[in-house]
Amino acid sequence: MRRISALLLALGCQGTSGGILPDAREIDAAVELDAAIEPCSEPSAWASAPLRPIAPYQGLPGAVAVDEAYAYWTEFLICPDGYCTAGPIVLRAPLAGGEREVLFESENETPGLLGVTSDYLFVTIDNQLWRSQKDGSAPEMLSSYYGFVSDGDALYRWQDDTLLRVAADTLEETPIGTAPEQGFIQLAAEAVWWLGADEAHVWRMPLASGAAERVIDLGTSVADALAVDAVGRAYLAIYDREGSQSPPILARVAGDGAEPEWIDDLWDGLHAVTVDDAYVYWLDARGLFRKPLDGGCVETRDLDADSLVLVPAPGGIVVASAGSLALVER
Question: Residue 168 falls within a domain, yes or no?
Answer without folding.
Answer: yes
